[in-house]
Amino acid sequence: MVTATITTIRRHGMVAFVLLACLAMSIATTAQANPRYAAIVVDVESGEVLHAANADETRYPASLTKMMTLYLLFEALENGSMSLHQALPVSAQAAAMPASKLWLKAGSSITVEDAILALVVRSANDVAVVIAEALGGSERQFGQMMTAKARELGMPVTQFRNASGLPDNGQTTTARDMATLSIRLMQDFPQYYRYFSTQSFTYRGTTHNSHNRLVRNYAGADGLKTGFIRASGFNVATSAVRDGRRILSVVMGGFTAQSRDTHMADLLDRGFARASLLGRGDWVAQSDFSGDFMANSGGRQAPETPAAPRGGSSTLLASLETSTIERQVATSAPPAVRSGTAQGSAEDPIRDLIARSAPPAASSERVVHRLEPVGPSGGWGVQVGAFSDADNARSLASRAADRLTSELAGARIDVNETNGPQKVFRARLVNLDENQAYRACRSLVQEGMDCMVINAGL
């Protein structure tokens, strides 16, 4: 039965904003522990940013650079100035590039198609220079072409100096810019995007295997690129499709390739789960769940109204019209990656980052974030969503109840109607003590659902 509530929600999108506040705080914690870390998750069709952590902070692209090298090569194929079977000459400068490489000899040649495969599979630095010289005359001039193309594609921060991503203090980017490039590769050159799923290729009798284990191990992943230099940490851009929905994610600054891949799988899992909830068509304020849209994705342009700064939580929290009631908001680690995806070692520091909870919020905002309750008490519950339709709210609450462990089976579904000019129905599970409520929220977060601990008596 739909029950009346004593308190009101002054903004119907409150739940979404509170969750974003949690996210902003977790970003600050991760950035402090790993200054190289950045990530972004995008629903490609709508362009909505489902998750962003340091997405606009300057980072080194490493071999993600080669995605732009390939973009310009695909463009040349598209306009007919090059062909897949065209031979590209290998200069002494190209042959002298450090590994990883194909070990091309100066004076030899490589076809355009083999060059594409060498960049995707082997991440060959010598081949990157071959392409740069073929398209730009010199790698330096090609770097200028790359930067100009970045501006044309809507990448305002990225600067390219070379075609490979080898160390150069002037070669910088952001996770958001790399996401823009990844999406434009898929959208502008769908006929060539298939190359990014290649796991091995044979060149002159030697078989080379891909560094991109996510394409092998993550269900639905179909391509893009990894990268590493010491200054950048382990980077990856990954696109995956599930139930007809495509999500693109970029992770930068991983401590190891394995932990980077684990974190990427976590982000994709949670991105698909969140996008599925938003795509039901009745989520309150669903059209602007994050308020952040990629300008070059899915035809949805970025909002003209400036968004709150992404790096800090104080501005975001100040936008909440909170009541005087202290709200307890559960935060938790992302879910464990499915079997088959590489795991980091027990001492791997990025796994600690993934597992770390968000720090407490400022007391002046009356919002407290923590993993464990102060102590047991009765009349607690969890809220998993807010809808304009009671049936949809009940459906989501039922799904949440089905995912709880047997020890929490005593939770009761409650659809709570708010007072106000527009009806909003809150999907809740109640009849829990405080400890149970926090355990329930952690469990639901691990299943990819958003969750907020509440005192059901309020």
From TrEMBL:
<dbReference type="GO" id="GO:0006508">
    <property type="term" value="P:proteolysis"/>
</dbReference>
<feature type="domain" description="SPOR">
    <location>
        <begin position="374"/>
        <end position="456"/>
    </location>
</feature>
<dbReference type="GO" id="GO:0009002">
    <property type="term" value="F:serine-type D-Ala-D-Ala carboxypeptidase activity"/>
</dbReference>
<feature type="active site" description="Acyl-ester intermediate">
    <location>
        <position position="63"/>
    </location>
</feature>
<keyword id="KW-0121">Carboxypeptidase</keyword>
<dbReference type="GO" id="GO:0042834">
    <property type="term" value="F:peptidoglycan binding"/>
</dbReference>
<keyword id="KW-0645">Protease</keyword>
<dbReference type="GO" id="GO:0008360">
    <property type="term" value="P:regulation of cell shape"/>
</dbReference>
<dbReference type="InterPro" id="IPR007730">
    <property type="entry name" value="SPOR-like_dom"/>
</dbReference>
<protein>
    <submittedName>
        <fullName>D-alanyl-D-alanine carboxypeptidase</fullName>
    </submittedName>
</protein>
<feature type="signal peptide">
    <location>
        <begin position="1"/>
        <end position="33"/>
    </location>
</feature>
<dbReference type="Pfam" id="PF05036">
    <property type="entry name" value="SPOR"/>
</dbReference>
<feature type="region of interest" description="Disordered">
    <location>
        <begin position="294"/>
        <end position="314"/>
    </location>
</feature>
<keyword id="KW-0961">Cell wall biogenesis/degradation</keyword>
<keyword id="KW-0133">Cell shape</keyword>
<dbReference type="InterPro" id="IPR018044">
    <property type="entry name" value="Peptidase_S11"/>
</dbReference>
<feature type="active site" description="Proton acceptor">
    <location>
        <position position="66"/>
    </location>
</feature>
<dbReference type="InterPro" id="IPR012338">
    <property type="entry name" value="Beta-lactam/transpept-like"/>
</dbReference>
<dbReference type="InterPro" id="IPR001967">
    <property type="entry name" value="Peptidase_S11_N"/>
</dbReference>
<feature type="binding site">
    <location>
        <position position="225"/>
    </location>
    <ligand>
        <name>substrate</name>
    </ligand>
</feature>
<dbReference type="GO" id="GO:0009252">
    <property type="term" value="P:peptidoglycan biosynthetic process"/>
</dbReference>
<keyword id="KW-0732">Signal</keyword>
<dbReference type="Pfam" id="PF00768">
    <property type="entry name" value="Peptidase_S11"/>
</dbReference>
<keyword id="KW-0573">Peptidoglycan synthesis</keyword>
<feature type="region of interest" description="Disordered">
    <location>
        <begin position="327"/>
        <end position="349"/>
    </location>
</feature>
<feature type="active site">
    <location>
        <position position="123"/>
    </location>
</feature>
<dbReference type="GO" id="GO:0071555">
    <property type="term" value="P:cell wall organization"/>
</dbReference>
<keyword id="KW-0378">Hydrolase</keyword>
<dbReference type="InterPro" id="IPR036680">
    <property type="entry name" value="SPOR-like_sf"/>
</dbReference>
<comment type="similarity">
    <text>Belongs to the peptidase S11 family.</text>
</comment>
